[in-house]
Amino acid sequence: MKDKLIFVTGGGSGLGLELVRLAWGRGYRVMCTGRRGVQDLPDDFPDIPYLCCDLSSQQGAQQAADWALGQSHGRIDCALLNAAAGYFRPLVAETATSLSDVLALNLEANMILAHRLAPALDGGTLALIGSVARKGAAGMPVYASSKGALDGFGRALAEEWRGRACVRVLHPGPIATGMAARAGRKPDFADRLFLSPRAMAHCVLDAALARKGADRQVISYGRVLFHPARLLRRGAT
Amino acid sequence: MGRVLITGGSSGLGKALVDLCVERGLAPVCVLDIDPAPDAGDGKLDWVFHDMADQEAAPWAALSETLQKKGPFDLVILNAGINATGRFEGIPLATHLSVARVNLLGPLRLVHMLLHAGLLAPGGRLVLISSLSVFTGYPGAASYAASKDGLASLARALRKPLRKSGNISVQLVCPGPMDTPHAARHAPEGARADRRIDPARVARQILELPHGRFVLLPGPGAKLAAVAGALFPQIMMRIMGKVLFARLK
To answer: Which of A81, A183, A212, A236 could bond to A230 as cystine, CB 3.0-4.6 Å?
Structure first.
């Protein structure tokens, strides 16, 4: 059971980093990709297979898929496709390049990975990390659109693969990963209400690995604040 | 009403929209399409060649220049779309990517460009043609479902900012299967064409949609399916799997 292999994209920082640390800490075999070079990873980064690549290019996504297939010898128990980017600004302030880059990373890379990893995921789980912004966050229209698209993609695939592999779209609420600040959002009082990445990682990993659960799940304040690990003060902050 | 811009006007709903606009004296209608104009020269259509999936900067810059001479537009209908049906892994990756680019990245770039160039007239309407799949799910067309859900999220995100900045009404249309070549190509075997809604009827409802309305579900069938899908998403998805995806294979 514990020799399960978990593949994480975007594991170099933010929620992905916490997912990697947590899954590794729980004793799973973990491998991940990230944009950061190996030298830029945190000092306590676990000693696991790591591929530095840019998933927003088609070649990068295909390279990541082939690397994951090679590392896993053709069997992945759980793929957590988490890598994403977005900007907190109106549509008119975007550039043509930023539009295609965000869509390429948040949607197309996940389609490429799902397409290539499909045989390895037989009997396993494909977890797509969405966002509550998919409901139409007016401050980040392109990000909202890409996450909405990921939701539609995941729901369709969940039904197609039912009985063969499990597909879940998990939509986290706002997390204090620094993404909001990087995305151009001015810090305000609401930032104090953002959830901790570690607590969120507990919930996301549980939701991804649970035997039963809905195809689409929102993981926000209710689930994170009342997560058992948090209530027992074990590990979670 | 002033100038109209429609993408994908050569067949299906787009053609019905163009015909209706011409009939109602809204000509010349500006049409963006990758197909050549059907009957050039009668002056009612202002046909512009454009590929919504184009990744290069130059064609979009050229399009912006062309449209600046024709705009601003009071009614913009983003209708162009393609589909790919079958098992997700059974369809080549390149096809999935072009579905995502024609149906979602293209409209994103076009709206971005229109906003940038100030081509959406204040008080006008921006209509996004999405799909009933937003409410029901669409197994057997994963990339199409993705693109249409992406359009719906975009419409929701743009609604408030555009209303505030120029009283532009963003509207989301979610049609079910229509009696078009598109539906005939992608319907499962044995599906009855006479149950599909007439695109001319959908076009009429779109043109007559009041400024303040956000979602249009054309016809009673689409309304019923959308309500069922919103209330019981998981059950609706299983039904779609049984009646649609299982029959596609």
So the answer is: A236
pLDDT tens figures, B108-126:
999 999 999 999 999 999 9
Which residues make up the CATH 3.40.50.720 domain(s) of chain B? Answer: 4-44+54-126+143-173+184-218
Residue listed under structure tokens 């993609």: A153
Q: Is the peptide bond before B72 cis (omega within 30 degrees of 0)?
A: yes
Cis, peptide link before residue B28, omega less than 30° from 0: yes
Q: Which CATH number fits domain B4-44+54-126+143-173+184-218: 3.40.50.720, 3.40.50.1370, 1.10.8.100, 2.20.25.420?
A: 3.40.50.720
A180: distance to nearest CA of chain B, Å? 17
Give the span between the Cα atoms of A210 and B35, in whole angstroms: 49
Please answer whether residues A213 and A204 qualify as being in contact, where contact means their C-beta atoms are separated by less than 8 angstroms. no
Interface test with B, best of A94, A145, A166 (most B CBs within 10 A): A145
Ordered DSSP codes for B54-110: ---HHHHHHHHHHHHHH--EEEEEE-------S-GGGS-HHHHHHHHIIIIIHHHHH
pTM, two decimal places: 0.94
- pLDDT value of residue A230: 65
Q: Which fold has domain A5-231?
A: Rossmann fold (3.40.50)
pLDDT of A157 strictly over 70: yes
Q: Which two tokens stand for residue B173?
A: 């249309």
Could you give the ipTM of this predicted complex? Answer: 0.94
CB contact under 8 A, A115 and B116: no
Tens digit of each residue's pLDDT (9 = 90 or more) over B203-213: 999 999 999 99
